[in-house]
UniProtKB/TrEMBL annotation, chains A, B, C, D:
One of its GO terms (molecular function) is NAD binding. It comes from the Bacteria. GO terms for cellular component: cytoplasm. The keyword Lipid metabolism does not apply. One of its GO terms (biological process) is L-arginine biosynthetic process. The gene is argC. This is N-acetyl-gamma-glutamyl-phosphate reductase. It comes from Silvibacterium bohemicum. Its main location: cytoplasm. PANTHER family: N-ACETYL-GAMMA-GLUTAMYL-PHOSPHATE REDUCTASE, CHLOROPLASTIC-RELATED, N-ACETYL-GAMMA-GLUTAMYL-PHOSPHATE REDUCTASE, CHLOROPLASTIC-RELATED-RELATED.
């Protein structure tokens, strides 16, 4: 285990990239070793990190940092050991295999490597699906949920950082699914709501202030990409779970309201115990417990996933509420947890 | 049928009261006959309507209107035929029976008279439940949903104007429930989200801007007062439906995401037909149809309830989305519809 | 004077266009005569008005309205007498002269024809400035502020509808400037704040929800296009007035805080009288008076310009606050006032 | 100089108190020495810090912290050396003299001790003004603006932490006023806009979401309490400066737009140099410089005050824009700067 390593970030222009930059610049194990920031140099444009993200200006030296044109030579020269890909999934499909060839470990924030089953991957329409190289790399990919795959992540060459919605739902459901207490014939309903940063930085009709503000809209009913992650990580089939995302008029934060039915009557303390046991060694999950439902404002701008539940008087119907910040626990923060595990550091280093 | 009548409004200080005042002041059948506005005179306070609601100032004469101290004599003297109660439910329990005694018809915006079953009313903890007078008045009360009870409303002495959440859910579900196509054993999930005006005008920790803004929170899980209306109007029992309200960071608007399962496979056009048939004569429901989901911004500041749905490929699981403005179709606007029906006017008069 | 006429709107896709469509569809003098909506037909696109603006769907017949491809023949065929241009200023420079040739009166919502002095027009960089045709048309243009130019508007062939910021500032200042009571050597400061709809519908980095929400930013300091309107309509020179626009995190509304100094000590009632006298015949200005400052929420979604002021104890320094809805009094609503004047109808018809 | 000390906070229930708690709990010199949190114990209420502020829950031990009933004995017992008063100004007037008697240094976040001139203090209506004790304590009070009074703060017994608006304006103006370059006869206009947290946590009509959202309003024109700070710290008299606060529909952040006139023509680089020189040793001021205006979103949730300006072509009229987070640089963050100075630590410790 090394005290520090050299990291690099490809694709720092988006919201998750900016958060990742901020976290890495202030990470206690990376003091004095800022990441190599990589991107496309646009002619005539200021390539400084702080021109792109003025909120990253501080008096700790960020002012001098540049976004440099990507090349494998540069990574080698700088001794990069872990490369974060904050790139669209098509690009991540291209770069991850090459990085592994160059013996650089990868933490990919896109959906490129999260899904082991071809059926689930179909939604992404990857050109390269089926090639031998891709299949080999896919095999190496570990789903980067520390609470579910802590040990595999430590040794992983390629970590597929989970989706934001998927994280909120999987963490809310996994202890109940794993314990076998759910009546899956009744179905699980996941009604999720996300802030606008989840829709990305590219200006569009849907991210226009006039569309998003004072509004609420459903999108991707029965068709959102994160469904595959839910199925694979929870071991469910499509008939057992429905997931509906909504666009909230707030900058950041996800709240998932999850409706389940227990096979047999449970008491609040039994359900509470299932959660506390499952997350006993997980510093980044906060259990609010029975009757204490988390809200978006508690977890936003933190790396926590907050979980609470309300049990009906019948002891069988239960509403689980799971909240997190889509750019932190749902993206950049969880990526740093994965870095910490891969380096043998404290899972929560640089995240509190 | 008269061309015009004299109305009165008791309790104009809240948000629904203000909207009701605005609608009645601009109603084509009430031109030149502004409502008698009634309330408690607070010593030393400006009793003009526009001091209370500066947004009601216009050049049509609202400037001179006063809020007058309530008395039955005053109502008689002014020849009031219909009294709107925009009062807390305890007060509505008190005033409605007296109004009927004075042969004044009542449209009550509170929850006081909506529920015919004592079990459902228990949540309101009415002191007077069980008294003979109350029971007699309760029998006269008609649930003021024009789409469900148009004919009874025309002749009603007492109309219990529906709850805002209840309206959005009942209108979204009734055509499916009435057609007997739902698999009720699978349960119905109603995940509803409302703007802050639904929480009332009294300043509180939960209506503070700092609590509501940039946030989303669940409240009243398994315990919200509107549940009784759902059960009675849809003919369901508690085991068949779950309803969860959320507080949205917007001023007004409700979106209910409703999850149902059909007993047998349906096509989108079959479902669409059920809705169009049911609402054929209803000017205030807009059917968006299959794959076209309404959003809060389309119905807000209108009196419409917008309904759309998305059917899963399996033809059985279906997400219904129902939107309305909680202060209009969910309160003051629906009250005006009821006035229109009671007076034999066009159901949509003054609402477009 | 005719009871009704045929109108047309070119460029209905933006926010002001949508408001204009709504106002004209509900205008009492235009019942049964919807405007001809004109635009570019994009191949394969739904050309119905309500596909573009779902909030315009109602049960009054808007459902059948189409956006038709523009041609002068079509306008002639339909007997169009007044054409609204809700187009970018370059297009308005092109279409207005042609409309006048076709003997169609024009109300232009852009900045194309508002400025009589070439110096002030320079900011728009018009290609055609200096041509004889343009100069002739410019001479005919009347600045469409009913409060300032009511009589000229009645007979105008071409009305240049004022800018939104300009309207709020000109109406706030004109009574004081006209009365000659200001110490112009001390300078006038106009600190204006506008909601995001003022920035237009085209998605951009600045209209992205993540940029606008929870933020406030200055733009166009010392360089905003509306300065020319202030100078010409108020008869000031650049050294006497500063105007700074800010982008507010709200959908609509403008508040201008205007700082002036009186040449001599005034009492609040003297200042109040100046305003009330000046706006005596103006139905669309509401004087809040001394110590009663308007807020954005009072005028938004109305066609009023609200004006109040606070006088310092010294009787010389005064803060004038002027509020309006940038899409109504600041654009489409004022355009309808101009239509009303041009047709000899009540100035406020269709606006309350 | 000690490496660490024991602190205490009285009045942790408000927004500034919560931010102060968060900062102190994570301060590098206070690791393992959480502040003593003091308040009124309300019978039957959970006295844990995290019950009051759920967002403070983390895995660093905050869970066990209690709010303890205030007593001087407790402070003595715990060895408290610095007491933060996050109390209303009346309480701060009472507690600060007693603390000094107990030889405990005080950082007071209220307006109680900021003003040396009785005229300026009149706005607070202090009962005790004029008493000998109060006068003696007032003499000891240092205005806690590190950029202006760094050296006096180091040795101060009582630091009066500046007001939020005052900080944004004083820091924006001081370099220009100190350099004597302003034409004060033309007057300085400070048009300031603040988020809702500045209005405090007590629910009221003005902090209701429905009032603040989608709105902008002026308050306290010519009468805001912070005026006295501006006059004393900038050495101006009332005739030379106007300050107008506005309530912005955002949770936090202040932007002040400040209008000044130079006595003689200046170039942008000359103005820039004045700022850079003045703040050369100040880590918490970021100079954006000529033509680069800060926005609220850049400084919010940081302890920076961001300053930029735009100079008119005439070289004399200048708009200065100053932004900060009202709860950090405008309250709790600046209080921690003062703690750092009083303890001989790095001025920015615990603030980046």
């Amino acid at each position: 285990m090394k005290d520090s390593i050299q990291t690099a970030v490809l694709g720092v222009s988006g919201y998750a990239g900016a958060e990742l930059a901020r976290l890495l610049l202030h990470h206690p194990n990376l003091k004095g070793r800022p990441p190599v920031f990589l991107g496309r140099a646009e002619a005539g444009q200021d390539s400084s990190l702080t021109a792109l993200h003025p909120q990253l200006v501080d008096n700790n030296g960020s002012a001098g940092l540049k976004i440099e044109p990507f090349s494998w030579e540069l990574l080698k020269e700088r001794g990069v050991e872990v490369l974060f890909l904050a790139t669209p999934h098509e690009q991540s499909r291209e770069y991850a295999p090459l990085a592994l060839e160059h013996r650089i470990r990868v933490i990919d924030l896109s959906g490129a490597w999260r899904l082991s089953e071809a059926d689930n991957r179909a939604v992404y329409k990857f050109d390269d699906d089926g090639s031998a190289v891709t299949a080999a790399v896919q095999t190496k990919a570990v789903y980067g949920s520390p609470e579910l795959h802590r040990d595999e992540i430590r040794d992983a060459e390629l970590v597929a950082n989970p989706g934001c919605y998927a994280t909120s739902i999987i963490l809310g459901l996994k202890p109940l699914v794993a314990a076998g207490v759910l009546d899956l014939d009744r179905g699980i309903i996941c009604d999720s709501k996300s802030g606008v940063s989840g829709a990305g930085k590219a200006p569009s009709a849907k991210t226009h202030y006039m569309y998003a503000a004072d509004n609420l809209s459903v999108y991707g009913a029965f068709s959102h990409r994160h469904m595959g992650e839910l199925l694979e990580q929870l071991g469910l089939d499509r008939s057992q779970i429905v997931f509906t995302p909504h666009l909230l008029p707030i900058p950041r934060g996800i709240l998932s309201t999850i409706y389940v039915t227990f096979r047999e009557k449970k008491s609040p303390s039994e359900v509470d115990a299932l959660y506390r046991e499952f997350y006993a060694g997980s510093p980044m999950v906060r259990i609010f417990g029975a009757g204490h439902l988390p809200q978006i404002q508690y977890s936003v701008r933190t790396n926590y996933c907050d979980i609470g539940f309300e049990l009906d008087k019948d002891g069988r119907r239960c509403i689980v509420v799971s909240c997190l910040d889509n750019l932190l626990k749902g993206a950049a923060g969880q990526a740093v947890e994965n870095l910490n595990l891969m380096c043998g550091w404290d899972e929560a280093a640089g995240l509190e």
